[in-house]
Amino acid sequence: MAILTTLLVLSCFLVATLASTPNRDSTKEFNALSPISSYITKSTPQNVVTNTIDSCWRAKTNWASNRQSLADCAIGFGQDAIGGKFGDIYQVTDPSDDPVDPKPGTLRYGAIQTEPLWITFEKDMVITLENELMVNSYKTIDGRGAKVEIANGPCITIQGVSHVIVHGISIHDCKPGKAALVRSTPEHVGYRQGSDGDAITIFASSNVWIDHCFLARCTDGLLDVIHASTSVTISNNFFTHHDKVMLLGHSDEYSADRIMKVTVAFNRFASGLIERMPRYVRVIQSLIWLMTCRVRFGYAHVVNNRYDEWLMYAIGGSADPTIFSEGNYFMASNDSATKQVTKRETSEKWSNWKWRSFRDEFLNGAYFVPSGYGSCTPIYSSAQTFIAAQASMVPLLTLNAGPLDCFIPLDEFIPLVASTLQTSMATSHWLLFLSCFILHLAFSTHSAVLNKIDSCWRAKSNWASNRQALADSAIGFGKDAIGGKYGPIYTVTDPSDDPASPKPGTLRYGVIQTQPLWIIFAKDMVIRLKNELIMNSYKTIDGRGAKVEIANGPCITIQGVAHVIIHGISIHDCKPSKPGLVRSTPSHVGHRQGSDGDGISIFASSNVWVDHCFLARCADGLIDVIHASTAITISNNYFTQHDKVMLLGHSDEYTADKIMKVTIAFNRFASGLIERMPRVRFGYAHVVNNKYDGWKMYAIGGSSNPTILSEGNYYIAPNNPAGKQVTKREMKGKLKNWKWRSSKDAFLNGAYFVPSGYGSCAPNYSPAQSFTAAPASLVPVITLNAGPLTCVVGKAC
């Protein structure tokens, strides 16, 4: 404990010292595009959303002492690549390079050895190679625990070898190698003709796995797989700022490439890319035409990759390759001439080439042109096989593409630091390592990507026994809504309904009580109300742990009350109610005039939070906030298949709505919506980090001089040229003075926001209400679980 205390004090002192130390050369694009911890929740491994590869090792805290187990984690055609699994650990301590006589401690010295080696790095380093790095068989280059760059010189050649793993390094700004002598083994120095300037060339090699690397800005390709190379997996890499990204196959004449099998999975093809993601070539048609995807034709499985855009095309090819595109997330650029994902570079009849798209997601007008007949699924062995995720999950599964920040656990780290301090009294590298490690002890490298609300509770496996802690999780104007936090649990056991004399065990009986109640459900149920459900103050309706629907009848009215939370239920197909007697408290039954058929009507109420609900297909609006209601947060909901979605403000004559303050955050406005997302009158609306999949008329509208701040939203406009504008002002007059602002929004498929007004438009939250908006690029991820969650007792939700 004394050692830990000393380290903590030392780290705090060192942060200030190191802040003035010049930064090393680094891959700025990757760092700039990497997630920032203020809105990425680092949670327990049980709550991690990772892809098949990462789930194999990233949740293990002993990765540093068990590095070679990484070799068991590959998938697809490169699954058998073992690298240096059965060899010794070799540590790179020296970033220098000599192509002919490499020194012990350098990367080249380790890479050329004949015995299996698992190569690691003592510290952060930038290695500028003097000529191409020839990697021998049974080698792993493992950058975990350090920031390692191979840059500004020739880069990596994997030629005529097998069982090579390259993991967790940055390779960028690669230059051609010169014609000169280069050592490839301890015994052999050969004359090389000079390399092309690829980041990684895989030439006549097999069983190769490239994982979690950053690749950018090289003279030739970022990754070439050529000359009959096969059994290759390319996964979890971050590609950016390059023209011809990935080439699979040497030339249209090199028929030996028909044996090629490559899996391209979980990669992020980010901004600044032009073509070849990948380009498949060089696979000559066999004399026998088969109706299945056979190895002789060459095969590429492109699966669960994220394509942020491209300037020419994403996937191309020639000479009859077979391509199976599965569960990818294709985001086309705004250029109308480059919407097509595919390009066939041939004058031949390509209609028989087997190019298939299966469960891909196409955004901003992207489309894939398929061809061929017969089965095209990959013929994997049982060990190679994995299940592709849904395309909608890809932004999450590829969020940590590229090198990871991996920290050594405390029980392994303290002895290491103590030993180092004794021998070197802390070089700047060790001081930085120590500081960063101490400051990150609270975090695992395995991060579930949760928004600000969900990060407060979803990682906790005891949510079912501590349900009322949810009330502490709200943000924005509805932050103070406590619902039934300080009351007992009430369990709904009966889905029936009696508006005038509700029975104990029914939902209505619970919501009308005068004391605070936290209302939960004993089982899945569909509740068909016979009249509007009038809620009393200090109530929470909590659907977690069951599938609860209020449907096909009148729905929820929150009128003249305060402190109401509605969480985790589905509300759909709501109908107008008839005039009749409805009980609102145990002691009062009143005659109601009939409701309009809203999903949720918030009328003259305050401190209301609606979270993780599904709302669709109601007779009037899905949510109305009217008659001077205020202090409202509407978050994490899934809206679909509706016309007038959300109304904030009763009418253009009802000036009392000037007090209205509403936060609309992390919602998914999905397909089939027309307008009012929201429509605002008089008050203030902070519309933040929502995803808009499209609209038929407009997304955000208003009248009567409301104030609207649109921040960090993700707007995908419809294809209709007349419907691209996000905004609509429904009033004549001096509209240019209304404060409508867009800040850091993302606009896709031609969407645009028309701002107006002057002066500050900030929400002026209290410290407790305040939160930091995530970048719009993360919105598809942090809204991925909008709507009711599937929560299992005893597990993180």
From TrEMBL:
Membership in a protein family: Belongs to the polysaccharide lyase 1 family.
Annotated Pectate lyase domain residues: 124-336, 524-721
Gene Ontology biological process terms from the UniProt entry: pectin catabolic process
Cofactor: binding comment: Binds 1 Ca(2+) ion. Required for its activity.
GO molecular function: metal ion binding; pectate lyase activity
One Pfam match: Pectate_lyase_4
EC supergroup of this enzyme: lyase
Catalytic activity: Eliminative cleavage of (1->4)-alpha-D-galacturonan to give oligosaccharides with 4-deoxy-alpha-D-galact-4-enuronosyl groups at their non-reducing ends
Source organism of the structure: Mucuna pruriens (Velvet bean)
Keywords: Calcium, Cell wall, Lyase, Metal-binding, Secreted, Signal
EC number(s) reported in the record: 4.2.2.2
Cofactor: Ca(2+)
Protein localization: Secreted, Cell wall
Pathway participation: Glycan metabolism; pectin degradation; 2-dehydro-3-deoxy-D-gluconate from pectin: step 2/5
Main location per the UniProt record: secreted
Signal peptide feature range: 1-19
Protein name per its UniProtKB record: Pectate lyase
Spans through the membrane: none
Source lineage: Eukaryota, Viridiplantae, Streptophyta, Embryophyta, Tracheophyta
Coiled coil regions in record: none
